[in-house]
């Protein structure tokens, strides 16, 4: 095997056998070794040599000890003596960073490295994965000529089972534990129809097309092992994210387009609400440009969080609402959406009630990473005024979560009868169950969604169309 410039050539395997100095020894052969004629020990040493390092601890523990073998030990520096002085000086070097410039570190032998890199640099200086990492190299599993199609054909073409009655068994069909009312209830496996306890049916998977189920369903452990290799196929074909958006009319002919509800029960509903919010904002900014978000703020946004929140109270105001967040990728496109929930309190000189459509501008990557947290807090101050169908709310708040902290600017259109100036505190949480029902992937995290490793779902096309309309007006 030849190595040059960090690349390995496999075409020289035949030459390796000729140039090798070692003879293959079959340790599994039960036949006795044939001693060479004349019992010449020098000939034996020339034919068989062991490429083990003499100073290897594993080799010495095996009991091999021969003082007759001639070898030249490789010169090397032994480990430093362990004493209190060396330990204290080593800790001091680590704390002060002086160990990075140790002269002995640069003299260590370097392994040959490959010149293949999966990392690249974006225009803003951030390090990103190369686009080829996301391109699947295997053929689609659902095609007849695809790899391993026959192995999974039985699962792909499975029919919905007939569920067993609850009275069929009094124990779990896997662990044989008796059922109880509170601690070990009955659960049907959606794939095989058997009855199992909660412990033996924890997994949730997307089911084949004939089941006509787009949400992940509870299955037993055995069926989970059968369905898990096919989840990538089902996510791209059966999940809610892969479907075409059905509700995309937002004008006066559709009653749901008149008013956004504060609570959305599904990601599809959140996509519709956010698209309707962006459309309404475009109308308001066209009629009253002085009340719109500054173009420079929108152009520099690294992400947008769009929510519909209801607020009511006197002196102490309560807020509740849901929405979604999208991030700007390095190439200028938008990421897949992630569902969020907002709960908050406000204290100040305020009275009334209002329904607000928020647009939170995330002006840097730190703010986007804040929304990648499972839960984060925000604290800010703002003023609100609403009288009838049109009102305005402007806030600036600081947000902090487990993934980081950042500054955000909040703009909104509100409806109702409300006036006040208050100090606002909010808790924003990622709706993991909503993301699971929409994408169908239980291993998907919010960072995967917002930082661009997830393809843009087909069901979110109305949202991307509204974003294109919003930013097209900025270019005019």
From TrEMBL:
It comes from Buddleja alternifolia. The keyword Metal-binding applies. CDD domains: SYLF_FYVE (cd11526). This is FYVE-type domain-containing protein. GO terms for molecular function: phosphatidylinositol binding; zinc ion binding. Keywords: Metal-binding, Zinc, Zinc-finger. The keyword Zinc-finger applies. Gene3D superfamilies: Zinc/RING finger domain, C3HC4 (zinc finger). InterPro entries: SH3_domain_YSC84-like, Ysc84_actin-binding, Znf_FYVE, Znf_FYVE-rel, Znf_FYVE_PHD, Znf_RING/FYVE/PHD. Residues 166-228 form the FYVE-type domain.
